[in-house]
Amino acid sequence: MNPSSLAVHCQNVVKIYDTGDQKVTALNGVNLDIALGELMMLVGPSGCGKTTLISVIAGILDQDSGYCEVFGEDLLNMSNQHKLNFRARNIGFVFQAFNLLPALSAAENVSVPLIINGMKRNDAERKAVAVLEQVGLGARATALPSELSGGQQQRVAIARALIHSPRLIVCDEPTSALDHETGHNVMTLLKDVALHNDRALVIVTHDARIFDFADRIAEMDDGHIVEVKGVGVQASPASTSKACTPVAAKP
Ligand SMILES: Nc1ncnc2c1ncn2[C@@H]1O[C@H](COP(=O)(O)OP(=O)(O)OP(=O)(O)O)[C@@H](O)[C@H]1O
């Protein structure tokens, strides 16, 4: 792939967690390119390294070796301040555990990326309410996270990842707490809002109901990418024998 058409370029990325008494190799030489304008899904058995990989891509975690470039920038070798600014401007992250601030309302949570990027609080909260409306939560803008269901908290987290129009959105299981219809609506919104030809979307998922939204699906096992396939391409017998569900054909 032409380097200028890439949103993400990972080459031989290794990440080892050292807990003192044991070392866990979570990423064992990951090679992955994600194109501008692409929705890439990442699948694979529990513990194979998916969350670790998207955390490296989003600049939340440093790899031990190898190379990871996002929009042509090497996050590992940025100064902390440059990395904070780069992330705040360019990356939206939907965490598996949502990571909402418990003392802030839904609208205040969603407005945080805009305030970090310098917008006045009132303007940011007004825009946050508008994005909450897009995810079907306009009426719950003043609710605290503890007053919302799991699925509602997940949609607040998605609104927060979208609000500042980042060029890269990284989501860890964004539909896990959502029913079929809400999950479908959220994926439609993510794809519409996130995907322009200068942006990209990376989604870790076990949810076969949303596979059709992907342009390509990368299958991970044991710390590396074992197969990348376009949607509509039949999975090989070797890949279907693992924990991944075969990819459905696009309608
Ligand atoms: N902070 C940590 N300290 C030590 N080991 C960790 C840490 N985070 C993850 N691991 C280990 O690294 C490996 C990869 O974990 P990771 O969370 O990336 O997998 P995953 O594919 O996202 O799993 P799941 O689908 O269950 O969320 C696992 O063996 C996990 O136990």
UniProtKB/TrEMBL annotation:
<dbReference type="GO" id="GO:0005886">
    <property type="term" value="C:plasma membrane"/>
</dbReference>
<dbReference type="Pfam" id="PF00005">
    <property type="entry name" value="ABC_tran"/>
</dbReference>
<dbReference type="GO" id="GO:0022857">
    <property type="term" value="F:transmembrane transporter activity"/>
</dbReference>
<dbReference type="InterPro" id="IPR027417">
    <property type="entry name" value="P-loop_NTPase"/>
</dbReference>
<keyword id="KW-0067">ATP-binding</keyword>
<dbReference type="GO" id="GO:0016887">
    <property type="term" value="F:ATP hydrolysis activity"/>
</dbReference>
<dbReference type="InterPro" id="IPR003593">
    <property type="entry name" value="AAA+_ATPase"/>
</dbReference>
<dbReference type="InterPro" id="IPR003439">
    <property type="entry name" value="ABC_transporter-like_ATP-bd"/>
</dbReference>
<protein>
    <submittedName>
        <fullName>ABC transporter ATP-binding protein</fullName>
    </submittedName>
</protein>
<dbReference type="InterPro" id="IPR015854">
    <property type="entry name" value="ABC_transpr_LolD-like"/>
</dbReference>
<dbReference type="InterPro" id="IPR017911">
    <property type="entry name" value="MacB-like_ATP-bd"/>
</dbReference>
<comment type="similarity">
    <text>Belongs to the ABC transporter superfamily. Macrolide exporter (TC 3.A.1.122) family.</text>
</comment>
<feature type="domain" description="ABC transporter">
    <location>
        <begin position="8"/>
        <end position="247"/>
    </location>
</feature>
<dbReference type="InterPro" id="IPR017871">
    <property type="entry name" value="ABC_transporter-like_CS"/>
</dbReference>
<keyword id="KW-0813">Transport</keyword>
<dbReference type="GO" id="GO:0005524">
    <property type="term" value="F:ATP binding"/>
</dbReference>
<dbReference type="GO" id="GO:1902495">
    <property type="term" value="C:transmembrane transporter complex"/>
</dbReference>
<keyword id="KW-0547">Nucleotide-binding</keyword>
